[in-house]
Amino acid sequence: QVQLVESGGGLVQAGGSLRLSCAASGRTFSSYAMGWFRQAPGKERECVAIISGNSGYIYYKDPVKGRFTISRDNAKNTVYLQMNDLKPEDTALYYCAASYRAPSARTSDYDYWGQGTQVTVSS
To answer: pLDDT tens, 77-114?
Structure first.
């Protein structure tokens, strides 16, 4: 069993930055692919960024490429999402998730989810 706890969300003006963190319990954190997802009101949950267990594979959804950076520190059981040049369309509830499987953008491939942290970007 893995428990995930996100933090770092908040209210920021367009063009600003936030750094999200996701702390995981358990001793096998490096075995999991980790993903950041987001869900805006009335929309489906979508993948934002993915990182493999050894950080050798990283994926970004097109709208965030060049603005967001995913990273992980396996010694601290933590995955991060650095978000720069934030836009109002980035407003959503952001979740981290862990998967036993190969890195994937599909929500159904993830085994554990955090409760989410709200990111609100004002124009």
So the answer is: 999 999 999 999 999 999 999 999 989 999 999 999 99
Cβ-proximal residues to 101 (8 Å cutoff; 6+ apart), any chain: 33, 109
Structure tokens at 106: 């599909």
Residues forming beta bridges with residue 22, ordered by sequence position:
6, 79
Taking only the tens place, the pLDDT of each residue in 26-41 is: 879 999 999 999 999 9
pLDDT tens per residue across span 105-122? 999 999 999 999 999 999
What is the full DSSP assignment across 21-88?
Answer: EEEE-SS-GGGSEEEEEEE-TTS--EEEEEE-TTS--EEE-GGGTTTEEEEEETTTTEEEEEE-S--G
What's the token pair of residue 23? 């702390």
CA–CA distance from 12 to each of 3, 38, 119 (Å)?
27, 16, 8
